[in-house]
Amino acid sequence: MRGRYLDTTIKDVAKYAGVGVGTVSRVINNEKAVGKKTREKVLEAMKALNYSRNNMAFRLRKNETRIIALLVPVINHPFFAKLAYYVEDEACRFGYSVLLVSSQQKVDKEAEIITKIKHREVDGAVFVTHYMHEEDELQDCPIVSIDRSFGKDIPYVTSDNYDATKKAIRYMIERGAERVGFIGSKPLVASEVLERERAYLDVMAEYGMPPRLVNEVIQHGEEAVVVADFLEKYADVDGVFVSGYTISQVFYEAALELGKRVPEDLQIVSYDGIFKQWGISNITSVEQPIEEMARQVVRLLIKKIHSEETCTRTVLKTKFVLGATTK
Amino acid sequence: MRGRYLDTTIKDVAKYAGVGVGTVSRVINNEKAVGKKTREKVLEAMKALNYSRNNMAFRLRKNETRIIALLVPVINHPFFAKLAYYVEDEACRFGYSVLLVSSQQKVDKEAEIITKIKHREVDGAVFVTHYMHEEDELQDCPIVSIDRSFGKDIPYVTSDNYDATKKAIRYMIERGAERVGFIGSKPLVASEVLERERAYLDVMAEYGMPPRLVNEVIQHGEEAVVVADFLEKYADVDGVFVSGYTISQVFYEAALELGKRVPEDLQIVSYDGIFKQWGISNITSVEQPIEEMARQVVRLLIKKIHSEETCTRTVLKTKFVLGATTK
DNA sequence: CTGAAAGCGCTTACAG
DNA sequence: CTGAAAGCGCTTACAG
């Protein structure tokens, strides 16, 4: 490969080896039905001419890109970065590459992915965002998702949001919390994440406790304001469940700055607050099995791409991990 | 797009509109030389048949994938995640997509990227890894890099490692540090990162201080051991410069666990230790202009892809950011 | 086992 | 302004 326009093609190899292009193709693809002698000649020619197959042509012929798109709200966040890591790893095992797209702020990036599928730039996509409303466009596109139930035949994997949240809140109550709050970053669309709020309200009802709830659609960067509002409105909370990747850390720091002693005055449990390796504080958390979610979602997608049957909803078990923010 | 084999093609559109395929192509590509009447007919047909261009064919014809690969050691790390974010953003502006590859542990992933270039799966690549030795294969491939000087005509962007390190170390000395150490994760290949060690040694010589230096090739996951060794070997240090994305946090925590008071007993400065938004502790740091590095490297790559001239070395200025680990 | 030919879906001179 | 044809680099029946 010298200039990108001087690559040697299958034709060059055929001529050099004195065979037909079909034969060269067969050698490249390791088909058995090629004479030993011929094969050697071709291999020699390939080496001599430093041939590499042009996969654009290959893919056009095969009608597959062997690329999947991964759409995350932001890649610059521990949860999504970790997810991306395992998605790439799993995709690789199946011979797929991963096109990374951070939808950050820009809603139209979601539509862009659909376009990429229709234009045959990728074979399918993993959606980990919470923006898009109109689901019509997704029709028949190989798409899978995390936490989001589209209601169509779009499979998704999620974690046991309801049960895990219930358990976490009960845990705080058992350790003395009496005024338990919930603060969350609410997804824009139907999502299993909403189960957390439901679980919270159910536990409150069960214990006859009045809810202290803020669950809003939070713009990126607005976390601090929402947290401050919450802590002002419900200044008396002594236990809080924090839902949402981006706010648990913000919440924790805000509480400390207000002079709250954690966990003595205030217990905190978050959904996905622990990213030890990134140095994030040691918050008691419901930990999602990110690796497993990633691998499952990729496998689902590949099945979809090949038009195989898939189950639409996969629920994975979380782990309750004790940190320093509960008694 | 119903089944992936039933897409409507340019031919279908041409037939439907009663024109030639060339004309359809011209409409798609918005060429002016098409009659108003004809254009309308074609557009109508496209809409009626729900046509989307097959970009595999388009790209084969144009001989460009409009994809660049980004090779990072791990995506699951603040520095690389942030870099990836801006790389994607910048690439997008130029109409390119980003294929994400985490080379994590596996050295051969680097070679894989070269293969992808030769096989025309991507137009070029950004290398942010420190593994590969043999540079022969890179010949004539559109590749750019961060921090790495290949010695060939492979452009790279880096930061002012030498000056920034000198400044940081002097800063600690001016504030009373007398036994200054250096711990680093040494790159496997020629890299500007090595300038940090050189700067450290120069300052030590300048002040007549004996060096306390550990600069090793650290396997992922081995950070803790190396740090422990360092702190045992040089138990008397009262100022340490930490070089390497992954060890600053580990070092800081280890020091605290040993009962060191920071910064009273021990001052710490790291190269890239601050990732506030990820909750990483507030270490005094030399902060690299990650966004700018990302954007520059992408622009360099695109120039290379188009065989334009580029300067081989771009040095960007760091910022010295005070945290809580210096006096 | 092997070659010649058609075709994947597009673009682009070439005539008209 | 427009159509017919060649070609991008491959694969794959189809004959032999």
Tell me what the structure shows.
2 copies of one chain form a homodimer. Chain A has 327 residues and is of the alpha/beta class. The first copy, chain A, contains 11 helices and 12 strands. In chain A, the strands form 2 sheets. The first copy, chain A, has a 6-stranded parallel sheet with strand order 2-1-3-4-5-11, with helices on both faces. A 6-stranded mixed sheet of chain A has the order 7-6-8-9-10-12, with helices on both faces. In chain A, strand 8, helix 10 and strand 9 form a beta-alpha-beta unit. In chain A, helix 5 packs across helix 11, helix 7 runs parallel beside helix 8 and helix 9 crosses helix 10. The radius of gyration of chain A is 26 Å and the shape is elongated. At the A-B interface, helix 4, helix 5, strand 2 and helix 6 of A face helix 4, helix 5, strand 2 and helix 6 of B. The structure holds a DNA duplex (16 and 16 nucleotides).
**Biggest β-sheet strands, sense, barrel of chain A:** 6 strands, parallel
Cα radius of gyration of chain A in angstroms: 26 Å
Describe the strand arrangement of the main beta sheet of chain A, using strand numbers.
2-1-3-4-5-11
What distance separates the N and C termini of chain A?
64 Å
**How many domains make up the coordinates of chain A?**
3
